[in-house]
Structures are given as C-alpha cells and as structure tokens.
C-alpha cells in the first residue's frame, strides 16, 4: 500500500504569539501597573538622586534638570523599547550609580561629571552590542536566577510588617485592601490597595504639607569636560555597578517572567538614550528589576503578550513626571513613608511568591541546584555591597560558584 501524504495545507504549524494591537491590548490593570512602577521609582530611588545632588553641591536648576533627564530619558526608552519588542521593557535610572555619586560627585565639576556620564553611556552601548551579559545569564541555571530575583524582591515584602506596626490604619488598610482585591478583583488589587491607603491617609491627616510649586521643569544643557580623573573616578565605577547591579538583574526578571528579552537591543538602546540625556544631567539608564517585576507579573495582565502596555504606560508617566519633576517631588514628600513601603510590598507580593517557587524547582539540574539557589538567596538578601556593587550580583556569583562545586559530573568511561 502506498502511504498517503497529508496535503500541505493541513500540515500543523506551531502557533506563535497573537498579533498585538495597541488599541485592543490597552487595559486598566496594565496602566495601573505602570503608574505604580513610576510611583515606587519616585518614592525611593529618586531620593538617592536628590541626596547625591545635595552631596555634590548642585544648584536647584541643575538638580531639576537631572531629575528631568532621568525621568524623560527613562520614559522615552520604555515607550520605544516596549513598542518595538512588544514586551514590557522597563528602563530606569541607576540606583547604585546614584549611590556611588553620593561619595564622588563633590570632587569634580558638573562639566567633568557630564563628560564621565557620556563615557559611561558609550561603554554601555559597546557592551550591549556584544550581547555578553545575555549570553552569560543564559548559561546560569534558572533556579539560581530565580533566587536572585527573590532576594531582590523579598525585602520589600518583609518591610510591610514594620509599616503596619508603625501606621496600622494606613499601612494596615493597604494590606486589607489588597487582600480583598485579590479575593474579589485580582487584576485591580494593587489599585484598590492604593486607593484605600490614599483615602485613609487623607482622613487621618497623616499626609504632610504639600509644598508644591506650579510650573514645568526646564532642563539645562550642560557641556561636558572630559578628564582622566573623572573617567576613572566616576565613569568606570558608575559603569560597573550599573551593569552588575541593575542590567543583569533586569534581564533575570524578564527571563523569570517567561520572556526572551533581546538583550542587545535593550542594553544598546538604554545606553544610547543615556548618552543623549547625559547632556542634561542623566547619569545612567539601565534595565529595571523591581519595577519590572510589577509590569511583567500576571497582575499587569493575565496574557503576557499584552503586558507590554505596562511598559508603555510607565514611559508615559515618566515623561509626564519629568516635566512635573518639581511638583512630584513636593507631592511625594507629603505622603507618609509607611504608605509607600506597604504599597511597594503588596505590589511585589505575587512576583516574590513566583520567584520563591522557582527557586525550589530542580528543573533537570539536579539536587545541587537547590542548595546553590539557597546560597544565592541568602547572599542576595544580605544587602552586602563590596566595592559599591549590590548584593544581587554577589548572590548570583555565589550561587554559580556553589553549583559548580556541588554538581555531580558523570564519570568518564
């Protein structure tokens, strides 16, 4: 008998991701995820920038320009990256980089600092174009990268308990609002918690004085001055801590959420935007980790192919925030710190749960990977930062070394 061959038209083909349509894909939950991500960025990381500006003796105009540059630069990169890749690309300013500047910025002129920022951005472009970081991370067992993510996120969840003790009505109300939201409207649980917390803060009079000065923030163009001292003292430390402490965890978050990020495009793009906005005070832009966990989670949208809207909305809010930088700084100064702590914690609760689950899955790597993942988690949670490099990097390194030492290799014949 002759074997019948099925017609070509009936041959099964693997189904790819559905075609995206921005108008159809927009959802309230994704927009809220973007807003919460920006709110958390302004509530915490922005304070590090302001402290660095104060330590460096910058003028109010230069400080406002710096905030404008990192906000608008992050926004442009988020919007373009998310539109091009149809993934929630989250770009933000370097937090450990700003921390480094707290101790080094005062030793150089603002023009020398701008020159160093440009050099750092160019180095980021070169490294991004090689795809080296993405290649290295692809070789790391997934449970270890999940442990890094868990170590980054868990401190936010842990701090919620202290916030509730400090302000039981406001922070406690946020927790209750979140839990009720998870029970009755899971996609909008964070929005419900935020709304309830805001109402309770206003009713109890816990908000501070709103010192808001109306008007748009106008950036200042600052010409660079390149010196060996500023390159060695600012550019190189800034580059190292940004790549190790921010871009690597940012890629880990993307992979842990089920995405295959185009690391060359993302890192090169963020480097190019960093160079452009460096002339207005932007020190360094990179892939975000904590806020990315919000945008890439199921709470942003159950369909991961529609979560890119959260990246776009994050970018839009960043751009708005950049031009309203002075007003936003005044507003967030009036919001009780425990409220922001509790909001960040509940927003990251589900991603923390998922990463902890992934930490305990062997996934074909053998029992040794579990122990290596625990080492990774412990070191990442420790908060140690030798040489100004955050604990997430050292946790990743410790996990890789532990796994290499403990895994069993097959015996040669």
Nutshell version of this structure?
The chain crosses the membrane at residues 28-53, 65-84, 91-110, 116-137, 149-176, 188-210, 222-245, 265-296, 308-335, 384-406. The protein is an all-alpha fold.
Q: Provide the helix percentage.
A: 55-70%
Rg from Cα: 22 Å
Tell me the strand order in the biggest sheet.
1-2
What structural category do the secondary elements indicate? mainly alpha
Q: Estimate what percentage of residues fall within beta strands.
A: under 5%
Walk me through the structure:
The protein has helices at residues 22-25, 28-43, 45-55, 60-85, 95-104, 110-130, 132-138, 142-166, 170-184, 189-204, 228-256, 263-278, 290-295, 308-323, 325-334, 337-347, 349-359, 368-382, 391-406; strands spanning 91-93, 285-287. It has one domain (26-141, 155-348). Strands 1-2 form a two-stranded antiparallel sheet. The chain is built from 19 helices and 2 strands. Residues 1-16 have low confidence and may be disordered. Helix 2 (28-43) crosses helix 14, helix 3 runs antiparallel to helix 4 and helix 9 (170-184) runs antiparallel to helix 10 (189-204). The chain is an all-alpha fold. It holds the Pfam family BenE. It comes from Raineyella antarctica. InterPro entries: Benzoate_Transporter.
């Amino acid at each position: 008998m002759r074997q019948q061959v099925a017609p070509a038209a009936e041959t099964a083909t693997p189904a790819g991701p559905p075609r995206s349509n921005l108008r159809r894909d927009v959802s309230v939950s994704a927009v809220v995820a973007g807003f919460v991500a920006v709110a958390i960025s302004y509530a915490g990381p922005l304070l590090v920038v302001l402290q660095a500006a104060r330590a460096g003796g910058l003028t109010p105009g230069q400080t406002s320009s710096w905030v404008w540059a990192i906000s608008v630069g992050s926004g442009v990169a988020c919007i373009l990256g998310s539109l091009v890749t149809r993934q929630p690309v989250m770009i933000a300013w370097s937090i450990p980089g700003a921390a480094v500047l707290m101790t080094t910025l005062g030793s150089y002129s603002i023009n020398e600092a701008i020159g160093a920022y440009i050099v750092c951005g160019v180095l980021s472009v070169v490294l991004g174009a090689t795809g080296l970081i993405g290649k290295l991370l692809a070789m790391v067992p997934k449970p270890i990268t999940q442990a890094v993510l868990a170590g980054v996120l868990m401190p936010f969840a842990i701090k919620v308990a202290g916030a509730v003790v400090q302000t039981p009505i406001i922070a406690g109300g946020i927790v209750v609002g979140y839990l009720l939201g998870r029970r009755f409207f899971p996609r909008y649980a964070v929005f419900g918690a935020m709304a309830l917390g805001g109402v309770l803060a206003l009713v109890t009079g816990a908000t501070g004085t709103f010192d808001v000065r109306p008007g748009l923030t106008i950036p200042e163009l600052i010409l660079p001055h390149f010196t060996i001292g500023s390159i060695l003292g600012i550019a190189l430390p800034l580059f190292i801590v940004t790549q190790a402490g921010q871009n690597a965890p940012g890629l880990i978050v993307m992979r842990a959420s089920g995405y295959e990020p185009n690391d060359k495009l993302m890192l090169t793009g963020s480097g190019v935007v960093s160079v452009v906005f460096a002339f207005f005070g932007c020190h360094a832009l990179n892939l975000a980790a904590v806020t990315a966990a919000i945008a890439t989670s199921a709470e942003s949208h159950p369909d991961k192919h529609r979560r890119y809207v959260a990246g776009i909305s994050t970018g839009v809010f960043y751009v708005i925030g950049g031009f309203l930088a002075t007003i936003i700084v005044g507003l967030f100064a009036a919001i009780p710190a425990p409220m922001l702590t509790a909001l960040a914690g509940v927003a990251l609760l589900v991603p923390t749960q998922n990463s902890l689950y992934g930490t305990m899955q062997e996934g074909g790597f053998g029992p040794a990977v579990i122990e290596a993942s625990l080492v990774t988690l412990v070191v990442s949670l420790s908060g140690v930062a030798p040489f100004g490099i955050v604990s997430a990097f050292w946790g990743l390194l410790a996990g890789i070394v532990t796994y290499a030492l403990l895994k069993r290799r097959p015996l040669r014949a």
